[in-house]
Amino acid sequence: MTTQAVRGWQQSPGQALRVREGFRVEDFDCSGTPGFPGTKRDAKRLMRQRGDTLGELQEKLFAEGRSGGTRSVLLVLQGMDTSGKGGMVRHVLGLVDPQGVHHTAFGVPTEQERSHHYLWRIDRALPPAGKIGVFDRSHYEDVLVVRVRSFVDESVWSARYDEINAWEQRRVDEGTRIVKCALLVSPQQQLKRLAERLERPDKHWKYDPGDIDERARWDTYMDAYQEVFDRCSTDAAPWYAIAADRKWYARLAVTELLTHALEGMELEWPAAAFDVDAEKARLSALRR
Ligand code: ATP
User: Fold this and answer.
1) pTM for this structure?
2) Looking at the domain that runs over 3-286, which CATH code has it been given?
3) Nearest CA to ligand 1 atom 1
4) Hey, where are the domains in the chain?
5) For ligand 1, atom 5, which residue shows the shortest CA distance?
């Protein structure tokens, strides 16, 4: 056991990382560790501590759902290729019981999905009561890749920001707490990660030649992200900008935001739906 204190957050990540008016994605330092002055070791230790809290809160949420509660949590992860969305799911959601997690990765829409409104597949993926839903990519693809690649006319995608805000507000009103995290990786770091995928045979499966084509559209993507931040960081469902060049920092930040969201729900263990003393008496009668 070490006696060295774990250095914590200097400022609550909910405050430090929230995207507010005036946020400029082009000025954002993706390699920083905003709000957290500690080292990687500090972060790993703190993450373990907060992971214990997160695990307990998730179990309370699950118990609430089993006892007739209707609340849930939705973690939305958006980011460019190599921004670490998959690792985030493994490392952060790996801290809780997998039975309480409802994970969905959104790829290119299937033929069936394309035959419906773009929010159809999103609605179907919402977490049931008592669960933590995770979206690896999300409805925001419909104003990101769809806009950048001109898959629909501007008149169509430009109407979606308000529609998304209204959709999110409805989910919040129904009892889903939404935590939206944009994993912001720098183009230099992306280059490194793509090169590593090519160098290492165990990472070849992650490499997609199409990622290079997307990278060529970096600036257009950043314009699209900027508009998402300008128009869809609402009080009901704010965006958090996560510096993602250092994976240890990004994972700590998302762990903290998720834990904080659950703490804010003031979850309690549900009261027993039976007479505890009577059941104790029945059990002790069996021991005699
Ligand atoms: P990763 O998310 O790490 O790239 P992956 O390569 O395994 O994971 P895919 O199944 O290839 O995932 O799906 C991701 C791709 O799907 C991305 O290129 C993304 O832009 C695209 N995509 C997601 N949603 C949409 C959408 N609504 N319209 C068009 N393309 C979309």
Assistant:
1) 0.95
2) 3.40.50.300
3) 81
4) 3-286
5) 107
What residue owns the CA closest to ligand 1's atom 8?
107
Mutate to test the pocket of ligand 1, among 118, 137, 213, 217 (most ligand atoms within 8 A of CB): 137
Atom of ligand 1 nearest to the CA of 139: 27
Per-residue tens of pLDDT for the chain, all 288 residues: 343 455 699 999 999 999 999 999 999 999 999 999 999 999 999 999 999 999 999 999 999 999 999 999 999 999 999 999 999 999 999 999 999 999 999 999 999 999 999 999 999 999 999 999 999 999 999 999 999 999 999 999 999 999 999 999 999 999 999 999 999 999 999 999 999 999 999 999 989 999 899 999 999 999 999 999 999 999 999 999 999 999 999 999 999 999 999 999 999 999 999 999 999 999 999 988
The ligand 1 site (C-beta within 6 Å) comprises 81, 85-86, 106-109, 137, 141-142, 145-146, 208
DSSP-assigned states of every residue in the chain: ---PPPP--SS-HHHHSB--TT--GGG--TT--TT--S-HHHHHHHHHHHHHHHHHHHHHHHHHHHTT---EEEEEEEESTTSSHHHHHHHHGGGS-GGGEEEEE--SPPHHHHTS-TTHHHHHTPPPTT-EEEEES-GGGGGTHHHHTTSS-HHHHTTHHHHHHHHHHHHHHTTEEEEEEEEE--HHHHHHHHHHHHH-GGGGGG--THHHHHHTTHHHHHHHHHHHHHHH--SSS-EEEEE-SSHHHHHHHHHHHHHHHHHTTT--PPPPSS-HHHHHHHHHHHH-
The pick from 108, 119, 121, 142 for probing ligand 1's pocket by mutation, whose C-beta has the most ligand atoms within 8 angstroms, reads 108
Cα–ligand 1 centroid distance for 99 (angstroms): 25
